[in-house]
Design a protein that fits this description.
It is extended and about 175 Å long. It contains two helices and 58 strands. By secondary structure, it is mainly beta. Strands 18, 19, 20, 21, 22, 23, 24, 25, 26 and 30 form a ten-stranded mixed β-sheet that branches. A four-stranded antiparallel β-sheet has the order 1-58-57-56, with no helix packed on it. Strands 2-3-4-5 form a four-stranded antiparallel β-sheet, with no helix packed on it. The chain is 14% helix and 46% strand. It holds the Pfam family Beta-prop_EML_2. It comes from Nothobranchius korthausae. InterPro entries: Beta-prop_EML-like_2nd, CFA-57, WD40/YVTN_repeat-like_dom_sf, WD40_repeat_dom_sf, WD40_rpt.
Length: 764
Amino acid sequence: MASVRSQPHFIFGVRTRVTNNLCFVDEQTVAYPSGNCCVCHNTAAKRQRFIYGSDNSQGIRALAISPNRVYLAVSERAEKATITVFDLQHERGRRRKPLTAGDMLVSEFLCMAFSPDSKYLIGQSGGPEWTLVLWFWEKNKVLATVKSSSFNDPITQISFNPHNNMQLCVSGSGVFKVFRYHEGALKQSSIAKVESINILCHAWMSEKVFAGTDTGRLLVFESGDVRRELRMSSHSDRQVEMKWIKEIDVNGGLAASGITAILSYSRGFVCSTGPGTVCLFERTEDNIYRKTREIRIPSDPRSNDLNPAELQEIHTICMSPAEETLAVSTDRGQLYSASLSSTDISRLLERHQCFVSLSQPFHSSSITGLSTCILKPLVATCSLDRSVRIWNYETKELELYREFQEEAYSVALHPTGLFVLVGFSDKLRLMNLVLDDIRTLKEFTLRSCRECSFSHGGHMFAAVNGNIIYVYTFTTFENTLNLKAHNGKVRSVGWSLDDSRLVSCGMDGAVYEWNTHTGKRESESVVKSCSYTDVAFSSDYKTILTVGSDIVREIQSCQVLREVPADEGSLTALAVSHSGCVIFTGTSSGTIRAIKYPLPIQREWVTQQPHGGPVNKMAITYDDQFLLTVSEDGCLLISTIVDKDGGGLKSNRQVVHTEEVLVTKADLEEKAQHMLELKMHLEELQMENEYQLRLKDMSHTEKFRELMEKFTLEVESLKAANKIMETKIEQQESEHQKDSVEAAVKHSKQLQDLGKKRTISVST
């Protein structure tokens, strides 16, 4: 076995066409399918944990997470489809025994759901059988099966009643059925007349089921039959009322277009109400739901006019366990999130909120080109989604991206990391990587350039058009050489270390080595039965390694030295380590092989299948630490290269990454002018502020003076009133004393008179 292998470290991209392809594991971790595996991505720490699929898997079809957030069910296509339940509390996602449909031959399960207590699992197979299977999954036991639909009525969603383990719902195009598990069988308890309605999604609200249709209607099912509909109130555009309906009208509804996703939560429900739009509704009273928030995908100034970001279709909606974060996935493989935290007052005040990227903006179609540089930890990719993206494999961030009007087929990053060469369907463009944009520097009239590459010194670059290789100088953009010899399309080119030689391979089975000074062929090897896809020099640049069809060949001086046949599938890509101890190959099935070098006589390699489609390009970073791979599945995978002990490869190359970036003179002048305007505006504001402060001081001083005068007058008035009051009191006291003296004298006189009278009477 090879002692060196690659180990997935971080992946950019989401697999679309996977049912329920986004779910929360905890408040900071989401799970989604990427490549041929499922990723648990921690948004705060920017760490990923990989849950790998089965060896014979043909791709992930659906995900389901248990209500207790402990188990993740993964459905995979195969000759005999399987559902694997993983224990997320285990560090590596402990795998349980796969679930199957028993003796029935089922190729895929389209959707799944856990029971409220997480003990049971249901899975819906595809047509023409449309078999619904109920498992007691912990014991790997099929409890019951039932045919849920006919051949012409596809199923879109299945679910358990959140309050009843034995009741479940199935919906789809012209289908709405409620089943109950009883006495070892799934028995249909009701049939709704919805033959003319295409139900895209549904959610349980207590004992009711809310179902969204392709015409934007939100129907309410009770006891398995459609009874009412949620419509906007005539009194308010923020209230939704339940209306009783006698006949279903297929025109009009709650949303302008199809309701593609719906989710219930503790206060109400969340649903898509149009392209790029999600609304939250909270229940206020009987049959009334109030729209509390509308969240939109914002427009992207870097996207082209053909596919505006704000018109993406919402595919999946999920909410964190504490209901503080809402996340969605779209039909273009993008992930967005929005905060619902009650502590975020600024967002509560904004009824119209915008989503932000949950991770990074990903490619939405097949990635066709890949390239790295020397002086920066950057990797460039291009895609059929018409975008060119610059990633940082150390910080795991998207540094730059831009969308164009044409499809991009090839990309080459200059060794300095300051320029990028991109082959579009109409032209070959050399572009500057400026601070916040990708700008065209020079255009070359090469249509549909499927391969381009800079020399190691960066002073030359090669571009392929059909079966001709054009060599240009980077300083003058002069076309110095046109290399013609291939009879078929050239698939790959590679430079020697001193840039004196160029090697090429093509679909005609030819491998040519060219002298870049004279333009002459120095060696050649032609095997017409083989269609080569990739070529590279060995680490010592003495031999040539190439892959094609189902074989790896090592060529020297027109002779094939060694051949290593592949087990299965055709080989599509090749990368050679700079240390010379290992080479990596990619296959049409998404497999990556680490093959020991020098090439072994016996088959000694380590195989893994991280991609869900053919591997289009591979590259190894200058320091031999990372293997970069891209695929038709739209994913960029960063893998660490480790030895048999799990440590990184030892490299003799000293890597110094620069932090300088390109800034155009116009940008600098514009920023300087903007700063000057801001400075002048600041000075004006300061002067205005000082003037207003002076006015306020003067106004306050005047008011203070007026108040002082007023209060002084009032004090004087109060003092005068007080004196008058004191005088009156003194007078009253004086009069009172006088009256008291007079009364006392009178009383004394009366006593004296009385005493005299008594004396006279006694004498008598």
